Amino acid sequence: MDRRLLIKLGTAGLAALTLPGAAKAAMAEGFTHGVASGEPGPYSVLLWTRYAAANDTALTAELSESADFARIAGGGTVTAAGARDHTARLLVDGLEPGRWYFYRFIAPDGTTSPTGRTRTLPAGPASAFTLALFSCANMPFGWFNAYAHAAARNDIDLVAHVGDYLYEYRVGDYPSLRDAVPGREVQPSHELIALADYRLRYAAYRSDPDLQRLHQLFPMIAQWDDHEFANDTWKGGAENHNEGEGEWRAREAAAERAYREWMPVADTRWRHYQVGDLATIFLPETRITARDKPFEIEEIVAGGGDAAAKLKRFAETAYRDPARQLLGGDQEKWLFDGFAASVKADTRWQVCAQQIVMGSLFTPPESAGWFGANPPDIVRRRVAAAQLAAKVGLPLNLDAWDGYPAARDRLLAAAQAADADLVTLAGDSHNAWAFDLSHDGRPAGIEVGGHSVSSPGFEAYTPEIPDATRVSALRASSPQLKWANTQDRGYVSVALTRDRVTANWHNMTDIRTRNPALSGTHSMTAERGRRAYSTT
Predict the structure, then answer these.
(1) CA pseudo-torsion sign 20, 26, 27, 29
(2) In this protein, which residues make up the domain named PhoD-like phosphatase metallophosphatase (predicted)?
(3) Which of 343, 372, 395 represents a domain boundary (last residue)?
């Protein structure tokens, strides 16, 4: 039965008794999914909640500097509308910079939401700021222990989620039923195509207690990657979309609408945040606005003939086509002008929190033997193609910035021209990376590549190969790579001070049980002005 019909009939409580946990949350009435905040500025913040009822419901939001709400510092009214899946977003202004606030929503009958906590950004001189970086949280693969660990900390100012907040696959595809963790079921069971599908999957993910807690305690800036739409999304489609699934534009619009309903985000596709005079954080969009279709090695060598010659010709021609876009002209201008304006304003760091790895990774020759003596035919073909590509200088992952070298050159050149102290943050790859970025033979900045919350990385595909062996081979084949972890799930905290940035990669002990313990942390530092990681 349709969920809204059940609500109108007053039978949602009875129906929910027979449904799995994620569906129970979607069927419930009242404040069903906690609270969240985002889009912080020095004087404003956006608040989010969901209140399910038979009709649209007017809610009152309150902010206070104390948990008892003795003095109300701001707020307003907002409607949880059925047309928006009963979600509500309210931008509250008139706040003080660099302050923690408590907030809550109040329903007409006097019931209140859980109390949330949020923070405005500093204005003027700022000496330190710490953000937590997350990406790639596939719920059936395991528990969101990275969220739980971060939520227990008291030294985080802002959370940045750079994509793959959820996954669109049908149950049993990724992960397989055999690999799925019991108790981590999602709804719907089929692949996400229509608006109702995406809404229900968000409801399932947002029923996770550790994700709810993270949202409750920290403001989040967020940007989608591909799985909020479909695997390997680009401006005209996606790898995981076919004609039988309808028009791509309809699916894209449904996915974007559900994202904006369920996330504490503004309606603009790209934006920036000013952390006093310490940092400008840019949040570009790399998937659906302007990205040209990714290259596929298998397509380049298809049709027989000399595969090596085909790849060599491609590497010298189409691969470096300056017309190929990732951000698009309008967004490039916004970002490049933003670098220059940030530096001109004497801001110490220019941080680009984007979705995909910018540093170059190349397939190691040794990796040909990492997949066992008799790998499946599809694995054998892909490994062979990757080895041929590496021999002609082509990188490992053409869906990352490595597949758009001219666009990357333009970005790094703009950072250099602005004299920016560039720090790029990335997700998507499921593994942890530290890159020194360079352009035209000169340092251009550093990259902090975050590992996934739960999605599998290199270790899942080469289980017999020790992490140290994989990392050593990758570093030997990839000169920009300074450090990597190809076996653990987790998150990164990035501490900015006036003279240095310190990245801390936090590795979770486990994701198959609910356990927020760490197995270790790796730290690396970059000094302002060097545009490279320190070697000591």
Answers:
(1) positive
(2) 131-505
(3) 395
* Statement to judge: residues 105 and 168 lie in one domain: no
Of 371, 395, 419, the residue at which a domain comes to its end is 395
Residues 448 and 380 both lie in one domain = no
What's 318-378 look like in SS3? HHHCCCCCCCCHHHHHHHHHHHHHHHHCCCCEEEEECCCCCCCCCCCHHHHHCCCCCCCHH
Alpha-carbon span 483 to 283, nearest angstrom: 25
> What is the phi/psi pair of residue 234, to 5°?
-140, 180
305 with 426, same domain: the answer is no
Mean pLDDT per 10-residue run, the chain (536 residues)?
A: 33 34 68 98 98 98 98 98 98 98 98 98 98 98 98 98 98 97 97 98 98 98 98 97 96 98 98 98 98 94 90 96 98 98 98 98 94 78 86 95 98 98 98 98 98 96 95 97 98 98 98 98 98 88
Q: Is residue 215 part of a domain?
A: yes
- Give the model confidence (pLDDT) of 230-288 as tens digits: 999 999 999 999 999 999 999 999 999 999 999 999 999 999 999 999 999 999 999 99
b/e map of 486-503 (b: 16 or more CB within 10 Å)? bbbbbbbbbbbbeeebbb
Which domain covers residue 391, as residue numbers? 295-314+362-395
By C-alpha distance, which of 492, 105, 445 is closest to 264?
Answer: 105
Return d(Cα 432, Cα 203) in angstroms, integer. 29
Q: Are residues 110 and 131 both part of a single domain?
A: no
User: What single string gives the DSSP state of each residue in 275-311?
Assistant: ETTTEEEEE---SSSSPPPPP-HHHHSTTSS-HHHHH
Q: Which residues contact 302 (CB under 8 A, 6 or more apart)?
A: none
CA dihedral sign, ordered 288, 292, 293, 294 = negative
Quick check: 230 and 253 in contact, CB under 8 A?
no
Q: How far is CA 332 from CA 176, 326, 351, 398, in A?
A: 39, 9, 15, 20
Q: pLDDT for 455-466, tens place per residue? A: 999 999 899 999
User: Is residue 145 within 8 Å of 511, Cβ to Cβ?
Assistant: yes
**Same domain, yes or no: 93 and 176:** no
Do 460 and 417 belong to one domain? Answer: yes
pLDDT at residue 384, rounded to an integer: 84
Each residue's pLDDT tens digit, 295-316: 999 899 988 889 999 999 999 9
Is 49 inside a domain boundary? Answer: yes
Per the structure block, which two tokens stand in for 427? 């997700």
How many domains in the chain?
Answer: 3
Distance CA 168, CA 249 (A): 16
Q: Which residue has tokens 């985000």?
A: 265
Residue 107 DSSP class: -
Q: Between vectors from CA 348 to CA 526 and to CA 131, what angle results, nearest 5°? A: 65
Burial of 376 (0-12, 13-18, 19+ CB in 10 A): exposed
pTM above 0.85, yes or no: yes
Name the phi and psi angles at 258, rounded to 5: -65, -40
